[in-house]
Amino acid sequence: MAATSGADLFGALAALCNRFRAEGGIDCHVTIGEAHTRFSADLCDVIYRTVRELLTNVRLHARATRVAVSSARARDGSVLITVADDGVGFPEHWRHSNPFAADSGVGLWSIDQRLRKFDAYLDIHSTQQGSRVTVVLPSSLLTGD
Question: Max Cα separation, the chain?
Fold first, then answer.
């Protein structure tokens, strides 16, 4: 499903979370502010694909029972879209290295490369009690704000 506008992105992320919950027994909640989804069609598509891939990583690797997809506005005006889980966190060696290195796995590296084309990036925080991956989108990317 490609999100072509902010309203489409809002609905697409909610539907994605509902499907994720239905398919695998991991509780998934989404709290995305519609005002946090006003981006170009190309960027909406990248955000959707990013969240989808992050949820896939949760399912495959995290051993989580809960995941939340949320948005917030940072003090500098940037929009933060976060996928947070209560799983086992990233492997220990990744927590102390660069998770975006090509040898760390193609998934995070390719997400990071797609986002950087828009001057956006990922911020990763991981412990043994779970992970929080945040897509940081500069305020300059918002449309109609």
Answer: 42
Q: Which pLDDT score is estimated for 58?
A: 95
Pick from 103, 96, 7, 16: nearest CA to 52: 16
CATH number for the domain that contains residue 45:
3.30.565.10
User: Considering the domain boundaries, does residue 41 fall inside one?
Assistant: yes
Res 98 pLDDT > 70: no
Answer yes or no: is pLDDT of 115 > 70.
Answer: yes
User: What is the number of other CB atoms lying within 10 angstroms of the CB of residue 32?
Assistant: 23
For residue 117, give its domain range. Answer: 6-141
DSSP codes joined into one string, 10-74 = HHHHHHHHHHHHHHHS-EEEEE--GGGG---HHHHHHHHHHHHHHHHHIIIII--SEEEEEEEE-
Residue 1 lies in a domain: no
Number of compact structural domains in the chain = 1
pLDDT digits (tens, 9 = 90+) for 20-53: 999 988 999 999 876 777 899 899 999 999 999 9
